[in-house]
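fyi for ur records
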Amino acid sequence: MAEILVPLLCFAAVIALGGSVLVARATRKRLLEARLAADGEGMVSAGRRSGMVDAVSRLGTSVSKGGVSQKLKQALAQAGFHDAGAPAVFLGAKVLLLIFGIAISIVIILPLGALTPLKVIIILAVGFILSLLPNLVVSLRRKRRCTDVRLRLPDAIDLLEICVSAGMGLDQAWNAVADEVRGVSTILADEMALANLEIHLGAPRPVAMRHMAERTASDELSSLVATMVQSERFGTSISEALRTFATSLREQRSQRAEEAAEKMAVKLLFPLVLCIFPAMLIVVGGPAIMEVLKIISSR
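which gave:
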């Protein structure tokens, strides 16, 4: 019975995980399209959810009756999950994976004999490891979004400075840059569109841009906010400030590239020692070793 049940449960686990990923991606796409299409209708619309997402959300809501920490909300927002129900879905997924991991471990381990303290520890460890998968997904998405914004922001600032220098207003230039950047970075373009939506809803520009910096976990955007606030406060040229800031961003990008190139020599040392050097040693020293062995065996 166990030989049939274990493969079926593994198959069901793979299907469930794959389906949850597809549902999450489709839900996020629908929410983003609704958010960008609503020009002045308020903030984010939750949209329709599938039955699976609703069930996970209800489970997470029942777990988080004491409230959700602001740190978790900020982490999910930095990963691109801006929906108000994202923390509930996150917590529900963690609880569901914990239960699923424990159940799978019990089904696999019980036929092997009676439960021992070591087997109980293994069962709990498998459930705990599976419950960390949502944390891993959120962490990877945060890192990818932050890297994408850091790489594309200097070009966006250059475009913004060119538009402002050509005589466009800052709001009009911001919208034009958001449209142009969408072809190379949808993440940065969406965040710029959300910041512009906040401004249209009455939020001051520094506050909207500060929210954008918090959503992307980008120190460069925080510096841009400070630069623009100082420029408006002291009455200096915004185009000159943007030009100087874009130059500093390009220099930082060049320095990061040089740092990565310097680290590459150290990183290549490990594959050289572990893979290439033993093969070269065998090719170069192999014939000599065989000759020595022949001479020793003949004597």
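The radius of gyration is 27 Å. thats all i got for now
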